[in-house]
Osmotin thaumatin-like protein (Dacryopinax primogenitus), 314 residues
Amino acid sequence: MHLSLLALVFVRVVTAVRTFTVYNGCPFTVWPAIYTNLAAGTAVPQYQTGWQADAYTTVNFSVPDAWTSGRIWGRRDCTFPAGNTSASTCLDGGCTGGLLCDVNTGTGMPPATLAEFSLGGTTGTDFYDVSLVDGYNLPIRITPTSGCAVAECPWDLGPLCPTTLAGPFDSTGYPVGCKSACIAGVDGNPSKSPNCCSGSFNTPQTCPSSGVAFYWFFKGYCPNAYAYPFDESSGTALWTCPSNNLADYTITFCPAPDGAEPSVSPPSTSTSFAFESTTSWMSTPSSMNIMSTTTGTTQPAPGSDTLPNSSVCI
Ligand SMILES: *[C@@H]1O[C@H](CO)[C@@H](O)[C@H](O)[C@H]1NC(C)=O
Ligand SMILES: *[C@@H]1O[C@H](CO)[C@@H](O)[C@H](O)[C@H]1NC(C)=O
Ligand SMILES: *[C@@H]1O[C@H](CO)[C@@H](O)[C@H](O)[C@H]1NC(C)=O
């Protein structure tokens, strides 16, 4: 009896896995991608690092519950020409490697909405979030089982995006992305920038959200998402779930919004936004026309990914 109890505990600890379900609710194909920061942990999802997801299709796979510093996102308007492993074969979100993202360097090219995870197999707490720190390219919702909170950015921010940040655009001229102020390089100095929380602005104290251009555009529409690197202080960016709930997670691209689009205006900043509501939905990309990427869209180096840098999360 004691032995079998031990065996049970042993099995639970060593082999606990979660089921992740990735559903493409968009009326067009996206190419989901998975990246794990292997410097933070070696557990990886039991699935390929990239695939084609046609409209309204689902895949599911097992993920070890020690998965740490991982992300799932969607790539838009991709072609994968033979022999070309460049991230630029997708209009945004592309990774080096081709259809399968390179396990070491395939972090994804901004702008891209990220679903980020550090499961608590070893720490006792799952951390997860939807991040707009690298900008936006698709609406995403993370739905845990077991009653833990939904994290999401359910709106198509492309057509709502301030002109300065909008793009890339598909062949019809539709904005399939919205860059963060950092990625767009609006202050011209990404290595010492209050928008990027870099240089002397690299702490929560020296990089308040009030210093981040367009923060309220992203946070206003998507209050449950990360809108800048130190957004933990908002209390609605980084989400947790007790790991012994053994939550499964569904990641949905283009979720059906479960409420009205926010009608928000930013606190008194000099920048005015067009917070008009939109009835248009994303056009179905037909684009084979790969836009050249602009300054600031360089791929982050592995290990310097933008998973929220709270010490608990990494
Ligand atoms: C996973 O996918 C299979 C087949 O696609 C389906 O039968 C099964 O119910 C799914 N499991 C979960 C937990 O979603
Ligand atoms: C790969 O494709 C991209 C996007 O079309 C293009 O810019 C680049 O030149 C290609 N690279 C090679 C090596 O063919
Ligand atoms: C993020 O965490 C890494 C590793 O702990 C650390 O070296 C780096 O300085 C942190 N970056 C910021 C912006 O706090």
Notes: The radius of gyration is 19 Å. Residues 268-314 have pLDDT under 50 and may be disordered. DSSP finds three helices and ten strands in the chain.
